[in-house]
Design a protein that fits this description.
Structural class: alpha/beta
Number of strands: 13
Order of helices and strands: EEEEHEHEHEEEHEHEHEHHEHHH
Radius of gyration: 19 Å
Bound molecules: NADP nicotinamide-adenine-dinucleotide phosphate
Strand content: 15-25%
Shape: globular
Largest sheet: 8 strands, parallel, barrel
Strand order of the largest sheet: 4-5-6-7-10-11-12-13
Helix content: 25-40%
Number of helices: 11
């Protein structure tokens, strides 16, 4: 890993194996859902140089405005200093809609290119406005080959420096790799000490696909179950944090970093943003790592969360879209 020297905190970077993007900063700012421009600007101010957005989040405009404002204020010399990721939503996962969707994303961001464009889910829905949750009847088969060809076209046109996927299991990745001339540079997935993704990490390491963690602090109850947060509520992590004089959040982020995974963390609070960057000058012990490896595993985000509990799947099987893989 290299390191970004001119940011408020020295954040390591990882070179991506595929595509032409600059190295990806180890720390990204999450903007789901609807991040205000000032929150993104605060993240840039404290040293975040990777901004994660998506067509689905409704935050592309505020991310673009924050970057433009940061350049105006001299916090950034130019847009090139930030690594910007956005994602193709399920309703746009149709070969002829991919390039136009990326152009729309770039218009929202007021940028000429993305550093990284991801397929948000291995799920395809009928074209139309973004609905969350969606109707089960709107799920249709995913044309892996045609959609990936169109993603490759995005890179060839220079609209995205690198392309990748999100929420893909090893089965979904097999289907992409079978047809890819440009392999995915990144797979962005739920990953933290409570959902460690051992199988997927080993697969991605073997194929040269960089793994980026979302919900590194356990997320924002995307499953709408009200079960609370398994990471910030973990007794094991709390004990390690107390012994090391760190917060639970820092222990989780440090553990992820030590697995060779980089992450996207959401905070709209400046002090917590700073805390989330402050994990590069200390290490977990062997004993800490052993304890974390024994934490019972639980995944919070599944394909079912995208859909209403009413209705029926008429043309796809939920199992084909399943993203739970231990
Ligand atoms: P997360 O980053 O794990 O957790 C965010 C929650 O933790 C927020 O409620 C935040 O509240 C709190 N928090 C942040 N720093 C903290 C700290 N140091 N101490 C205590 N609490 C802290 O969850 P996430 O939003 O699910 O994931 C992050 C990003 O990943 C998203 O914003 C999005 O960009 C991306 N994502 C991608 C997908 C996908 O399908 N690809 C899915 C989910 C998320 P405050 O704001 O109050 O600090």
């Amino acid at each position: 890993m290299g390191s970004v020297g001119n940011t408020a905190a020295a954040v390591p970077e990882v070179a991506l194996r595929f595509g032409n993007a600059r190295p990806i900063p180890a720390v990204g700012m999450g903007t789901a859902v609807s991040a205000p421009m000032n929150a993104v600007l605060a993240a840039i101010e404290v040293g975040f140089r990777h901004l994660d957005t998506a067509a689905m989040y409704g935050s592309e405009r505020s991310v673009g405005e924050a970057v433009a404002e940061a350049v105006r204020r001299g916090l950034l010399e130019s847009r090139e200093e930030v690594f910007v990721t956005s994602k193709l939503w399920c309703t746009q996962c149709h070969p002829d809609l991919v390039v136009p969707s990326l152009r729309e994303t770039l218009k929202n961001l007021q940028m000429e290119y993305l550093d990284l464009y991801l397929i948000h889910w291995p799920v395809c829905m009928k074209p139309g406005p973004i609905a969350f949750p969606a109707k089960k009847e709107d799920a249709v088969p995913f044309a892996f080959e045609g959609v990936w060809r169109a993603m490759e076209e995005c890179q060839r046109l220079g609209l995205a420096k690198a392309i990748g996927v999100s929420n893909f299991t090893t089965n979904h990745l097999d289907r992409i790799l079978a047809v890819a001339t440009i392999p995915p540079a990144v797979n962005q997935v739920e990953l933290n000490p409570v959902w460690q993704q051992r199988k997927l990490r080993a697969y991605c390491a073997d194929k040269g696909i960089h793994v980026v963690a979302y919900s590194p602090l356990g997320g924002q109850d995307w499953s709408r179950t009200g079960e609370g947060n398994g990471v910030l509520g973990s007794q094991v992590l709390a004990e390690i944090a107390q012994r090391r004089g760190k917060t639970i959040a820092q222990v989780s982020l440090r553990w992820i970093y030590e697995q060779g995974v980089t992450w996207i963390v959401k905070s709209f609070n400046k002090e917590r943003l700073k805390q989330n960057l402050d994990i590069f000058d200390w290490k977990l012990t062997e004993e800490d790592r052993l304890k974390i490896s024994q934490i019972p595993q639980k995944k919070y985000v599944t394909a079912a969360v995208l859909f209403s509990t009413e209705g029926e799947f008429t043309s796809v099987d939920l199992a084909d879209m399943d993203i739970v893989e231990e």
